[in-house]
Amino acid sequence: MVQLVTKDIRVSIRTRFQGAFINNGLKQYAFAYTIRIKNEGKHIVQLKARHWQIKDALNDIDLVYGEGVVGKKPVIKPNESYTYSSGCLLSAPFGSMSGYYEMVNIETATKFKATIPNFKLNAAFAMN
Question: How far apart are CA 31 and CA 107, in angstroms?
Fold first, then answer.
């Protein structure tokens, strides 16, 4: 598990290789990840948006921006957490992801970023 705390928000990630398949004549590698966002602060916060940088071993870079996560903009109270699962496709059997969440402190309306630590996406068969 990879994790990082930014401004009292702990982001923890677990990844899984889901398999490979051919899509429009190109081999693709599917990865799933589960992310837990824990509020270790004293104020209620809300996740408003996500920013991802997805890289694969072929140096392809995908930049992704979107509101919320998996269609939700969760409100997270102190000492509570929100967990979700998602996934991505790569053109190579290994790569990485990183980014940040746009958050807002509900009580003060202060916006801030919670860093998503860099995490690896690896298919076991491709590792030495």
Answer: 36
Query: How many domains does the structure of the chain reveal?
Result: 1
**Is 128 part of any domain?**
no
Residue 7 included in any domain: yes
Say whether pTM exceeds 0.85.
yes
Return the residue matching tokens 């996560």.
69
Domain containing residue 93: 2-123
| Contacts for 31 with CB less than 8 Å, ≥ 6 apart | 15, 16, 17, 18, 87, 88, 89, 90, 95, 121
State pLDDT tens for residues 19-64.
999 988 989 999 999 999 999 999 999 999 999 999 998 878 999 9
